[in-house]
Design goal:
The protein contains one helix and four strands. The protein has 63 residues and is of the alpha+beta class. Strands 1-2-3-4 form a four-stranded antiparallel β-sheet, covered by helices on one side.
């Protein structure tokens, strides 16, 4: 069974939610995930600033 990821420092920009977590190597990573139904976009970043920029520039193709 895979380990659970515990997110901290959650924030939401539009439909995109950003969270910080520690990967299996103990490094802090930031992820941005679109919460719109049917979108499915998500990505990991090494800094919170990069995740926030991606969240601000994300455009859902789901209407």
């Amino acid at each position: 069974m895979p380990a659970r990821i515990h997110f901290r420092s959650l924030m939401k920009i539009g439909p995109v939610q950003i969270g910080t977590y520690r990967n299996r190597h103990g490094r802090a990573k930031d992820t941005a995930v679109c919460t719109s139904d049917g979108c499915g976009w998500s990505s990991d970043y090494s800094s919170s600033t990069a995740a926030q920029l991606a969240a601000r520039s994300h455009r859902c193709r789901v209407s």
